[in-house]
Amino acid sequence: MADVYDVVITVMEQKGHCARGHKAGDKFYVRDGLTPGGLCFSAFAALQPAIRALMLGGEHPWEADKDATTLVCQDAANPVLFEVRRIRG
Length: 89
Known about the structure:
It contains one helix and four strands; from the N terminus they run ββαββ. It is α+β, with helices and mostly antiparallel strands and about 90 residues long. A four-stranded antiparallel β-sheet has the order 2-1-4-3, covered by helices on one side.
């Protein structure tokens, strides 16, 4: 079986008002393939494809750092910028 990596999701920036109170520096962990507690459902839905790719060893060809990518949540009026990062070893 291929390696399955844990992933850390970090709030990098938040503009406007986040209804769930996410703020810069917040961290959420995806461990052993389990969803992270406390992360807004809408944000998780937006991040899930990147989480899954990084968990399973994939990468995003447009990113210089092949272990990470950045995405925003679906609230265009109050965007939260997240970094999704694969945890190696």
